Request: fold
Amino acid sequence: MSPFRAFLGKELWEIVKTWRIWVLPGIVLFFAITGPVIARFTPQLLQAVAPDTGLVVQIPDPTFRDAYLQWARNLVQIVTFAAIIIFAGVVSGERRSGTAVLVLTKPLSRTAFIVAKYLAQGALLIGTVAVGTAITWALTYAVFGEAPLLPLAQATGMWLVWGLMILGIMIFLSSLVGSQAGAAGLGLGVFVFLSIASIWEPAVRYSPAGLTSAPAEIILGRAGPPPVAGGRGTRPGWDLRRRGRGRLLPQGTLGSSGALRLFPPLEEPDPPRQRLERASPWGTMSVWTDCGERT
Reply:
């Protein structure tokens, strides 16, 4: 077995045997289960509160789109926040505990170290969100009686591009900063910056900031093929899919590739030494020498 495959297996096994297998999946599954139910009974909840405040609340009957929007907003906001905190210690935790020193002194390159980290955490993210999407679709169908799969799958796929980009950025920051708290703080700063930039149209069209609103745009039907052949009359948001496929997927791996350059070279441990006894005119002398060195 190659060193890369062995280390990748170790990373996957570590996810299964530690708290990572519970935290992110627990958060995603909680919102997948509660989202359709909350969307269905939100008008009743508001009407129950309205008599106490004297307000007249008129809300249209909820549909499957409300459940899908609830899922998309939870992904963009809460799940992204949780992923930043969780992935902040992917590399810095290994460096702090000394595990990285032990691993990199073996026949494993720094490139393989970073790539294995990205693949293992990416598998956790994709698998968790895929299960959450299936639960959301099933419960939405049970509650509303209809649940088209295509808009939910497209919106979730667009968010996964965002999530994998965030993962790459966090691996980059975790390699750059020695503490998990510092990497998490910088990651949250990037998230806030992109969220603010999403109100500027050029940033939405030509930067990752457009991914923060892309899932909701797809669910609402604002992202679709141009109605007129030749590209004229394109509906707002049609470039979301092209932007996600053409520009943001390369940026999603930019953080991991940058981590390869900023991941500091680790000092190799001193070679083992042995003690030799030598006779001299003044008695027996002890000489320390490296193993394998001729004396």
User: Anything to note?
Assistant: Residues 224-253 have pLDDT under 50 and may be disordered. Strands lie at 273-280, 283-290. The first strand starts at residue 273 and ends at 280.
